[in-house]
Specification:
By secondary structure, this protein is an alpha/beta fold. The protein has one domain: TIM Barrel. It is built from ten helices and eight strands. Helix 4 runs parallel beside helix 5 and helix 6 (141-148) packs across helix 8. The N and C termini lie far apart (36 Å).
Amino acid sequence: MRIPPWLRTKLPQGNNYSCTSSLIRDLGLNTVCQSAKCPNTWECFGKKVATFLIMGGICTRNCRFCNITSGDLEPLDPTEPGRVAEAAERLELRHVVITSVTRDDLPDGGASHFAATIRAVREKLPDASVEVLIPDFQGEEQALRTVLDERPDIMNHNVETVPRLYESIRPQADYAQSLEVLKRSKEIAPDIPTKSGLMLGLGEEDTEVMRVLDDLAAVDCDIVTIGQYMRPTKDHPPVRRYVPPAHFDEFAAAGEAKGIPHMFSAPLVRSSYNASRFVGKK
């Protein structure tokens, strides 16, 4: 299938893209923007915005949709939290989004490294809001508490797709466990907004998407993002359908009707795209 016109993006003007890219490279950091080949990278870097990817560039899992590779794992770098904070400060970020590869090899799944990174950012940018996009920590509640104890402004964990497709798309993950992460987060810290997201175009049916929205509403998820899956390389699963913008609008309306306060649903939406709008920051 040919990429439809609503998924074609324009390159930004100005020098911000190269400045952002150079800063990240010079500080030895990873971003999910580059690692996942996000289609919004040009736009976000052009606005001096990036989503930091901590704990190395190698993942212990092999989700079929993802462009981040699996392989020989890297030891955690204790200087990384400080370098993330320095980058956030130099980019003058008002909303800092931190995510990671999945590190099932670590006793706490990397929760303490998330916590250290939040603390470092808050030290450098006390007025900035912080959003974390966490893995499932294999369902370990104490790991989740370690992150929540640092009081992030938004706690994000993506379900990614509908339950039927987990075996083929997310074989090392568990849909019920992902829902439990969101549910437990609300139980532990009910005042911290929870967020989740999924992609369309992997072979899901509309009725299945609606059931996922029901499930997210049932665990009191505050923010849901829905975007179009785009194949990173020819080795990834093909796109099964391109969903038109009006259909994304229908999903947004349905989610709101089910009780989800904030729906952000459009073809180019990604989990951290324009994330600051949810905390009233620019």
